[in-house]
Amino acid sequence: MKAALMSTTTPWQPPPRQKPPNAAGALCCSKVNGASASSSSSFSQIKLQGSENNAEVSQPQVQSEEAKQTEIWRLFREAQKNILHLNQHRLKAVEDLNKTNSEKQLLVDRIEQLELEKQASVGKRQDRLSSCWEILLRIDAMVLAGMVAAGEATDLRRLVMDYKVSLAEVFNGTLQKTDAELLAELRHFSARSRRNCFHIVHICTEMEPLVSVRSLASYVTGLSCALQRKGHLVEVILPKYSSMDLDEVQGLQEIEAESFSYFNGQLHRNRIWTGVVYGIGVTLIQPLDYSAFFDREKVYGYSDDFERFTYFSRASLDYIVKCGKLPDVIHIHNWETAIIGPLFWDIFAKQGLEGTRILLTCHDLNSQCLEHPDKLALCGLDPSSLHRPDRLQDNTKTHLVNVLKGGVVYSNKVVIMSSILSKGRVIHNLSHGLDPTLNIYKNKLIVSPCGFDNSTWDPAKDNFIPQKFSVKDMEGKTVCKAVLQQHLGLPEHASTILIGCILSEVLDVDLENLRAVLLKASRSDAQFIIMGTSKVSSIHKLGSLQEPLKDEKVKFVNGCDEVLSHLIFAGSDIILCQSFHDPVLQVPLKALKYGAAPFALNSFHDNFRNFAEHDYETTDFSRFISSTFGNMSMSEALDEIKNNPSKWKRKIMDAMEMDFSWDAECCDIHVSAYTAIKKL
Known about the structure:
- The chain is of the alpha/beta class.
- It has 3 domains: 2-9 and 39-120; 196-451 and 671-678, Rossmann fold (3-Layer(aba) Sandwich), CATH 3.40.50; 475-660, Rossmann fold, CATH 3.40.50.2000.
- GO terms for molecular function: alpha-1,4-glucan glucosyltransferase (ADP-glucose donor) activity.
- It is an enzyme of class 2 (transferase).
């Protein structure tokens, strides 16, 4: 097209002007014919003159046609120039569009590549961690099979700890290697440098998601994952319960060599299973001679619980020694594994574990396990040397031994889990008869708050809620509130205060406190959503609240609905919980993260103010709560929301910016405890 346009650019010219026809011929004829010419000369002259007159008459018409043709051609040339100019712009625009589309496609391809790299990086980190644990568990099997000595095994484990990233790449695909091949490669990869990290072994009776009954399960998993994210090596030893969901264990395998443990005067066989859960190495101990110990419907609550868990505790220590493990810390929990304290110092510290220390965590001081002293002999302990006031003898029932007391006495540090109480208040108010012992050993007592899983509970990442939000963009919380109101049939008013309440077991005192709060707050413009989470709880008791509160502003939800629970946190302005210390549901911690103010049913704000403001040994969480929502009554909170919204919003935003996850204060306190006992 462009070539065709260029060929027409030469200007079109009109034809040259012609002389009148036959004029020259008439003159010639007059010369040849003589007279005839003369006689007709007058006629010829007249005719010629007439032709000239006619030419003069048509001249303006010719000039007019020429001007018209010239003007048409001028306009045609301008049109051609305009078309050419527009065509050039069109070609440039097409070129720019193609360039933009190309750049856009490159950008889309890059985004997809980065997303794939991100997913691959996450998967690679998990694969590396799993590979490291595969190597560590293979080392355990080599020791049990007699392929490597305990001392060398310890060095090899340190090698894996110090170079876990490099080793994961060097020894990729260890399942395809024989034990001999892997051992040869490990010995070859001998150069290493010691890093400042701890090797921690939890010996416990619960761990999410394998077996979960109390708060211990989430604590072991949450803390272990947080410790490993900070570079420490953590493993867990559990009983192999028959009810355990083993599908959650990655790479589950049975170690071929049997482990033996001492109990009731004899050596007994155990089957050992290993695997990885959430990147944490897990060892399961299955008694063969006492197979009925853990082949039961429940985890706790049997008359022989002392025998069951004492056997497991002794078997765990026997396994650690036989594998040649030299952990920095053996972390034990509650009375069920507290017997490890005296077992370790009286028997196992002399078997190559001189550098190992013991840390006990107490989640419930009310459960202590009192037994006849003679039963201590079942696991190889000497009853006469331990049944003493300064050791295991119970402070009140002196004819019995107190297993939890023995754990306190024989541990290097004792961590008491409490989100709001100080060490002093725990000793004097919640020790359940252990206060003389705790007073003696108060210098090794530490109080730690619980944490929560912020990878699952984070409004900025939560896929269960209709619109994500964060402290920098709170629009999503308004959307979540509207969706929650619509879902439960509540009047949809953004200005209405929405109060959520999430409970597990409903005690009578909780019911009375909740009834009082509902009656007071229902007089104001507030809506309530009450959810019970326990599958077998007394949540039906909440039905008694429906009679006096037949109001469209109060909704009761029975059963556990994970999606709805996320939405309640996201859409509520206030969350009622049973206590600020809630290790099971972790309601106060989740509420703060989702921009909802937590209020405890069983804590009168005046009482909370008294101990929170005057006791400086409380946790960061307790101090924050006392300075924000803990000092307020429900009526004061409702009044501030309505009359001083900017002040309330500042509190909410401050709360959302706080970090109360497992990775924060809880993990830091435990690392400090590990560091302190390693220096002893």
